[in-house]
Design goal:
The structure holds two protein chains of two kinds. Chain A is α+β, with helices and mostly antiparallel strands. Chain A has three helices and six strands. In chain A, a hairpin with a 4-residue loop joins strand 2 and strand 3. The longest helix of chain A is centred in the first third of the chain and has 8 residues. The radius of gyration of chain A is 22 Å and the shape is elongated. The relative contact order of chain A is 0.21. Chain B is of the alpha+beta class. In chain B, 46% of the residues lie in helices and 14% in strands. In chain B, strands 1-2-3 form a three-stranded antiparallel β-sheet. A three-stranded antiparallel β-sheet of chain B has the order 6-7-8. Chain B has a two-stranded antiparallel ribbon with strand order 4-5. Chain B is globular and about 70 Å long. Classes of the chains: A alpha+beta, B alpha+beta.
């Protein structure tokens, strides 16, 4: 048994670069498969509602009459079920995570006219 | 004459990442009895089978625990696949094996770090977790998630790993193996570390058997049993033997887990060499009817899944027995006669996962 078994690692750490990244000066680069958040290309959407039916947490609401698509970002578990089930492939998973917020919001997108609105 | 007192330990304690409460009966500094309490964060996930259909329940199953996430999802999926008599493609079986072993590596590295933290060796803790970070990065690269992977589905896997990705992972594991060999010298040879681990918390082979211990906790007491040998995923095609130790103290548990990390890297190499090309999932139609009992070797030990289906999209029952629950009686036995200062180490040597237990 030795007292100095860790000394080699300590010395190596002393003269090597830090293992951490200087955030936020150097933002993280996400791998291509990172499940960050869901986006909808609403112009291609046919509002069939399959994504809403497949969503395990019920985070997605589709209103065919008003041609609107809503998602509760803070209920979404980023499983990707909606992306897989979308027949028009207008849903996609983006790499960056949902931004933090002070209260839970619902993101709604409408087809015509195209607009983004946030409602609590 | 020694003074008898009761010391409450937990549920909030610096060495406990999760809440478990122990009432320690002490005679001076010596523990004579420990009485556990669990249930502080019970989430009632098994009740959710009434609301989530059998496909959606995969996402619930993998949220039982953040560390064994993949294996919980896989255990549930394999149970339902067996009920429905679905044969998944060979490539999916190998992918499950690779991800399972990656989970085991990251869980054991996490545990080694927590152990180092418990005996006050902060640099060793940081060093171990830095190594674990590489496994999490590989998980994110291959599945898209660092904690919850969402790649299991009934009928196979959602995502594939191409052969280039697997080769890249193998080179990372080769580097990791080299660094780990340096690091484990500290765990196994350093005198300060040894003084906290050797001859502490003995569990004999008979006690381990009688108290139903599982996993590395059981194997370090000399019982050679590993549920991977039962033949789920691609384990029947891989060559390995359960890693055991006959000593049964904290040092033996550390030694067994360290050797299991190297074994897992070897299993990943074997799986990468044998993985066939082809599909990773098959379509599944209809609803399950019947029941199945499945045993999975998680990093902490044997987990049991019991699924009962009634022919509709909602299951009748899902029951999960987790390794920590099985190891609690053994842990209490090791505490009898130990010093109060050794209690944190003894709790950690079963690798407690209360979120698994309180599913």
């Amino acid at each position: 048994m030795s007292l100095l078994t860790f000394a080699k690692i300590e010395l190596h750490n002393l003269f090597s670069k830090p293992a951490t990244r200087p955030y936020p000066e150097q933002p993280r680069e996400y791998p291509p498969r990172t499940r960050g958040h869901i986006e909808n290309d609403v112009d291609a959407c046919v509002f069939c509602g399959l994504c809403s039916k497949k969503c395990p947490t019920g985070a997605i609401q589709v209103n065919r009459g008003e041609k609107s698509w809503s998602i509760q970002r803070f209920s979404c578990i980023q499983c990707g079920c909606c992306v897989e089930s979308c027949p028009k492939k207008c849903l996609s998973m983006h790499q960056s995570y949902t931004e933090p917020a002070q209260r839970k919001t619902i993101d709604t997108v409408c087809q015509t006219p195209v607009e983004n609105q946030n409602a609590s | 004459m020694s003074k008898r007192s009761i010391v409450p330990f937990g549920p909030q304690h610096p060495v406990l990442p999760e809440p478990i409460h122990l009432d320690l009966a002490l005679e001076d500094e010596k523990v004579v009895e420990a009485i556990p309490s669990i249930g502080f964060v019970h989430r009632g996930l098994e009740k959710l089978v009434e609301k989530k259909d059998f496909n959606e329940y995969v996402y619930v199953a993998e949220r039982i625990c953040g560390i064994c996430s993949f294996m919980h999802g896989m255990g549930y999926c394999e149970s339902v696949e067996n009920i429905m008599e679905v044969e998944i493609p060979p490539r999916a079986k190998y992918l499950r094996t690779i991800w399972c072993e990656m989970s085991r590596i990251h869980s054991h590295l996490l545990w080694l770090g927590l152990l180092a933290d418990a005996f006050g060796f902060e640099s060793l803790f940081m060093e171990t977790w830095r190594m674990r970070e590489k496994v999490l990065d590989m998980f994110e690269y291959s599945t898209g998630g660092r904690v919850i992977f969402s790649v299991n589905k009934i009928g196979g896997q959602r995502k594939d790993m191409d052969n280039d990705m697997i080769r890249e992972f193998l080179s990372v594991f080769a580097d990791m193996e080299r660094d780990l060999k340096e690091l484990v010298k500290t765990f196994l040879n350093n005198s300060a570390v040894n003084s906290r681990l050797r001859d502490v918390g003995f569990l004999t082979k008979q006690q381990a058997f009688d108290l139903g211990a599982v996993g590395p906790f059981m194997r370090s007491s000399g019982i050679s049993r590993d549920t991977r040998k039962l033949g789920y995923a691609a384990y029947p095609f891989l060559d390995f033997e359960p890693i055991t130790s006959d000593v049964g103290d904290c040092y033996a548990r550390t030694d067994v887990r360290i050797r299991e990390i190297f074994q897992s890297i070897d299993l990943i190499r074997q799986a990468a060499a044998k993985i066939p090309n082809g599909e990773v999932s098959v379509p599944v139609k209809g609803f399950p009817q019947g029941e199945y009992f499945m045993r999975v070797e998680q990093p902490r030990g044997e987990a049991i899944y019991y699924v009962k289906a009634n022919g509709t999209k909602f299951l009748d029952r899902v029951r999960v027995r987790t390794p920590t629950f099985a190891n609690l009686p053994g842990m209490l036995e090791t505490m009898k006669g130990c010093q109060l200062a050794d209690v944190p180490i003894l709790i950690l040597t079963i690798d407690p996962c209360i979120s698994c237990t309180e599913r």
